[in-house]
Design a protein that fits this description.
- The structure is a single chain.
- This protein has six helices and seven strands; from the N terminus they run βαβαβαβαααβββ.
- Helix content is 34%, strand content 19%.
- The relative contact order is 0.22.
- It has one domain: Pyruvate kinase, C-terminal domain (Pyruvate Kinase, Chain: A, domain 1), CATH 3.40.1380.
- A seven-stranded mixed beta sheet has the order 1-7-6-5-2-3-4, with helices on both faces.
- It is α/β, with parallel strands linked by helices.
- It starts with 8 loop residues before the first strand and ends with a strand.
Length: 196
């Protein structure tokens, strides 16, 4: 029976201040495992730019998953256009897709007539509460990126999420499409906040 020994990093608390370290850990693990793609959640573009900086001089590909248009305000995309231009110029892919672990379900659960939680939201809540909010975000971004064709399902990726802003959770995931959610595998947790 074989085993591997690798570093796992724990942040004292969640938050944006962990972003640059999370980026460094993501690049480190990608290089150790020969992984070519890093999937990063980014609302405004700030986190994506921090990862782009950490990836400078490597052959790693950055896939940025953003909130959908209208997530916070109808008809508005929260991602800063200047950040999008810089990322695209550097070769990063920007993916904007409906949240795989809420989407239409949230419209039903928030409805005063229908109300109640859904099975999809229960999965999301389980990931948030038992491991880390950033894990739920990372898993969801991988599903969105796979559904949009930005990543394949046949090779591992580094996936990164955060608690509110920035990045504080880094993991290795074998992707799946949303319709095959239970084929997705979180294979390693590289970094996460210890206290949430």
């Amino acid at each position: 029976m074989g085993f591997v020994s690798r570093n796992t990093y724990y942040f004292d608390a969640p938050g944006r201040e962990n972003t640059r370290d999370a980026a460094r850990f993501a690049v480190e693990r990608a290089r150790e495992l020969g992984i070519k793609r890093i999937v990063v959640a980014s609302t405004s573009g700030w986190t994506a730019l921090a990862f782009l900086e950490a990836m400078a001089g490597t052959d790693l590909e950055l896939i940025v998953v953003t909130h959908v248009v209208g997530f916070s305000k109808p008809g508005e995309w929260e991602f800063e256009e200047e950040a999008a231009t810089a990322l695209r110029a550097a070769g990063a892919k920007i993916v904007t897709g409906t949240h795989a672990l809420s989407g239409l379900e949230r419209a039903i659960s928030r409805s005063p007539r229908l109300g109640g939680s859904s099975r999809t939201e229960a999965i999301a809540e389980a990931l948030r509460r038992t491991v880390a909010i950033g894990l739920k975000v990372a898993v969801e971004c991988v599903l969105i990126a796979a559904d949009q064709g930005a990543i394949g399902i046949d090779e591992e990726v580094i996936a990164v999420g955060g608690t509110a802003t920035g990045a504080d959770t880094v993991c290795v995931i074998r992707p799946a499409h949303t319709a095959s959610f239970f084929d997705l595998q979180v294979r390693e947790i590289v970094a996460m906040p210890r206290n949430r």
